[in-house]
Amino acid sequence: MTPGRRERRAPLSDSEASPERFYVLTGSVEGGGRAALDLVTLIVARGEAPPTTPPEQAALLRMCPTPLSVAELSAYLNLPFSVVTVLLTELLAAELVEARAPLVRSALPDRTLLESVMHGLQQL
Questions:
Q1: What is the DSSP letter of 31?
Q2: Residue 54 contacts by C-beta under 8 Å, 6 or more apart in sequence?
Q3: Of 47, 10, 27, which Cα lies nearest the Cα of 89?
Q4: Which one-letter DSSP state was computed for residue 68?
Q5: Residue ranges making up the domain that contains 90
Q6: pLDDT tens figures, 21-54
Q7: How many structural domains are present in the chain?
Q8: Taking a C-beta distance cutoff of 8 angstroms, is the pair 24, 54 a contact?
Q9: Is 10 among the domain residues?
């Protein structure tokens, strides 16, 4: 494995991908209590996992010293987006991770403004 790259795991077998397994992983949390996360929300760990942290949540914390999207976390752990969202909601409530909104294109400066600034600087 090359440094900086993550290994791809084999797809889950039928027994590993069963709804019962996901129910156990999420601790039977109701859907209404989830954080408003989407696929491109960036997640960053705020610290180490406490000893009582479940394995899946500890894995999320280990993976996020630098920002990763929820979609990437879901793919790396071979878990559905909804399950990862529930796990992250619990980590957010415990303040073990931080969710950052992705940079939105409309939030970037206007191209004409940047060109005007560039031309102004060139004339100095």
A1: G
A2: 25
A3: 27
A4: E
A5: 19-122
A6: 555 555 545 545 667 788 999 999 998 888 888 8
A7: 1
A8: no
A9: no
